[in-house]
Amino acid sequence: MSDIKIETGLGAIRGTTGPSEGQIFLGIPFAAPPVGDLRFRHPIPPDGWSGVLEATTYRASAPQGQSVTPGMAAEGAIAEDCLYLNVFTPGCDAQRRPVMVWIHGGAFTLGGASAPIYDGERLSQLGDVVVVTINYRLGALGFARIDTEANHALYDMIAALDWVHEHIEAFGGDPECVTIFGESAGAAAIAALLGMPDADGKYHRAIAQSGAAARIGSHEDGIALADALARSVGVDSSAALRRVPWEKIVAAQGTAAGEVRAWGPVFGTDEMPDPPHERARSGHAPDVPLLIGTNRDEVRLFTRMAKPDPTPIDDTTLIDRLKQQTEAALHARLDTIVEVYRTSRSSRRLPHTNRDLEDAILSDYRFRLPCLDLLEAHTAHGRAGFNYLFTLESPARRGALGACHALEIPFVFGTTDAPTQDRFCGTGEHVDRLSRIMMETWTAFARNGSPDGEGLPAWPCFSTARETMIFGTNSALALAPLDAERKVWT
User: Fold this and answer.
1) Active site annotation includes 405
2) What is the pTM of this model?
3) Of the residues 169, 271, 298, 408, which is catalytic?
């Protein structure tokens, strides 16, 4: 690898040449460290520096706990001083390439931009785009409402977009052609940004993979969570949390969330007046193309990773388990929902034991239906929208994971050969081909707002025909796939 030195408005930066001859800059500050009096406040711009910033290694991810699901927790160091980004570019020149800003997932409590599957060099090189991966504050440190401010993590993302607008030209990027893309909580964050007036104009396309911020919290939830956290750590007010070591806050945030709801974005403030879906329905969301979709068997990452062959359950137990995991308004209809899923999956020769039905129903309830709802709201006012369904099955756990949550990520980044991904994604020509198709499609969308990647049929905008691109062993366009299941909910 060779060194590369460039000048930015903040100071000189030294990066390296990557294995694929791309230029890589790691650990660049995009905001001041959110510590001390800046904890629980919206980010402020970073100070410049004299000399040369060595951008050759990743910086710490946000404070977080551990995860029983492999790959969800950050790898490497964690620290409260975490607001750094990474840039992968074909060249620091005057080409003004499309920019793709990645927001990682992890339930708003886990993860970081340094995961090997988020290495952006291949995506950058193949699509001739600039890829930016960012950290943001997590859990209570990212979302506790203290004083009058909330959604600090979302403002971290906005601060990263401001940095892109100010500095990305030095890295060969076009600040007027910015795509935000993310998965799971990262996709929910993108939906939340669609609902935030302060984010308008800072991006020009959006890609949401397996997330839609459908069950977003309220302003009152944010206050209640902060108060519960204060009780958990033994201080007399939420404002006093600024004096508590971050390790103690992270250790207590799970208990506090159990009292109210999960940590995440809240609405009902000047920052986000309404839930994102409502802003889209009203026609006030930004007019940007939206690419959104899910994986067919989302929840199997969580239900089948530890125990691929769970104990069978009878019909009564299935209904009881679904009642525990869905809203009360649906409970009277669960018998009908179960039978529709049983018939549909049997007709398509998909597994349809009661455990399989539970997974399929909850995958739709938590992921596919909210994403479709956001897409329908977004396109109702003439905005461009595109839907996909990822169906390639993982070979891991003897095939028990199916097309589970997060499986599409290494295909999008071209990192199917990252550590452990051979077991998760599989190997072979079909894996390489699908990864290339998805990389070309995502970067084409970033370039012109239309997902016209090589190797796919024409992909029209989502309409009443419910056009959906199936990404699988043989990718193809489908009209209203899995529609019997969708209709039974409505």
Assistant:
1) yes
2) 0.97
3) 298
